[in-house]
Amino acid sequence: MHVPDGFLDVPTSLATAAVAAAAVAFALRGARRELDDRAAPLAGLVATFVFAAQMVNFPVGAGTSGHLIGAALAAVLVGPWTATLCLTVVLLVQGLLFADGGLTALGTNVTLMGVVAVWIGYAAFRLALLALPRRVGSVPLAAGLGGFVSVPAAALSFAGLFAVGGTAPIDAGTLVAAMASIHSLIGIGEGVLTALVVGSVVVVRPDLVHGARRLRAAAVAAEFGVAESAEARP
Amino acid sequence: MGADHGHALHYHGHSVIHRLPAHLKIVSALAFVLLVVATPREATWPYAVHLAALLLAIRAARVPAAYLMKRLVVEVPFVVFAALLPFVATGPRTNLLGVSVSQPGLVAAWALLAKGTLGVLTALLLAATTEPRDLLAGLTRLRLPGQLVEIMGFMVRYVEVVAGELRRMSIARTSRGFDARSPRHWPVLARSLGTLFVRSYERGERVHLAMLSRGYAGSLPALDVVAVRRTEVMAAAALPAVAAIAALWGVVGR
């Protein structure tokens, strides 16, 4: 899934590196709001979790298997700013210590998975929450939708980058169609797994699921007859 | 912890390349790969020079070639993509072993394979000769935001712990007769991941409290910075310098 060296030309790689650097700079500030001064150890352990989660093979059948990307999953569990940082660190470690993903494509990979997949996935999650009943039980379903959307979103962004700075003459329409269809299938797997994992965490520790915070506050308020304004508390 | 354990790709050694400061190695590797990517694909010879320079560096690092070759498998997915390129690319067709393929697609596939392989080999050499903690120090010296390096530091330290936890869960599942064969088994695997998240998060909280009780006030103490010798800078510059000449050759000779 990682973009290797030589797929995109130098100007495009440098441009995506600039986008990635700017996004990380914003995320460093945003993550302090999500995690306060616990940011470093907590984001570090969550990044390690994402890295480990990507190692788990999920059998698809006929001897093949796939694995999670975890962008939408991380965004729902710990918030999008922290998720951007976690995915960035995972990609840095994979690129520098495991030779997975090109060194010159690091910016591209961070932009695609750490920014596009995380934020589109999170946006889809929040939109789905608005449409679903205001219950904690809606969180896994919305998270699953976020996971599903995040994969084709990243794939289509890659197709867009390839149309601008690709190194092979492929018809843009063909590439978009191929990327969209394959990654929609992969996205279904990502969505189902994201929903299942978020569902299992929400049952035992709803307080740890960032995306369920407001709903939980509302549920507690309703139970104890407190006014809805109590929601404002973090 | 505390013991000098490396990581999956590190190859213990004391060669010139092992001893080079990490930040020089990172810059050297990045510059080299950038120059490889910038080399025009119509030229063949510059790539031979790139490869020769990289092989000399691997030789100087005294990392066995077989050790790196085995790890080249990470490039399999894009080899498949490159193999498909001549068939799906546009442009004038040409005959290859009796099959009609796209001429520009063929050139692009060759360039992709050459650049991708050189890139992976460079990253492997960097990983094989650099300890994770040196890499972190190098990234700090390259002005990567301190918090990002800290997060990376926690990941490097705890990856074995979390992966070990995952392994023990897998053994526990297997010993209870679980065998994941189809998507029907996903809920069980997903619950394991959910548990792993809760455990990782709680470990993060415990680590944070332990740090606070030892006087942590928002940032880790800086590592001592070692002075860089000029010979080291020149050694690190050698690889990109050769690549720059080869890339220039490719541009001019076109």
Helices and strands in order:
The complex is a heterodimer of chains A (234) and B (254).
Chain A: H1 10-35, H2 39-53, E1 58-61, E2 64-66, H3 71-78, H4 80-97, H5 106-131, H6 138-165, H7 172-204, H8 213-223
Antiparallel strand pairs in A: 1-2
Chain B: H1 16-19, H2 22-38, H3 45-61, H4 65-70, H5 76-88, E1 93-96, E2 99-102, H6 103-129, H7 132-141, H8 146-175, H9 186-213, H10 230-252
Antiparallel strand pairs in B: 1-2
Mean pLDDT of chain B: 85
Radius of gyration of chain B: 23 Å
Q: For the residues shown, what is the average pLDDT of chain A?
A: 86
**Count of helical segments of chain B?**
10
Structural class of chain A: mainly alpha
Query: What structural class do helix, strand and pairing data of chain B support?
Result: mainly alpha
**N-C termini distance of chain A:** 36 Å
Over all CA atoms, what is the radius of gyration of chain A?
18 Å
**Low-pLDDT residue intervals, each spanning 5 or more residues of chain B:** 1-6
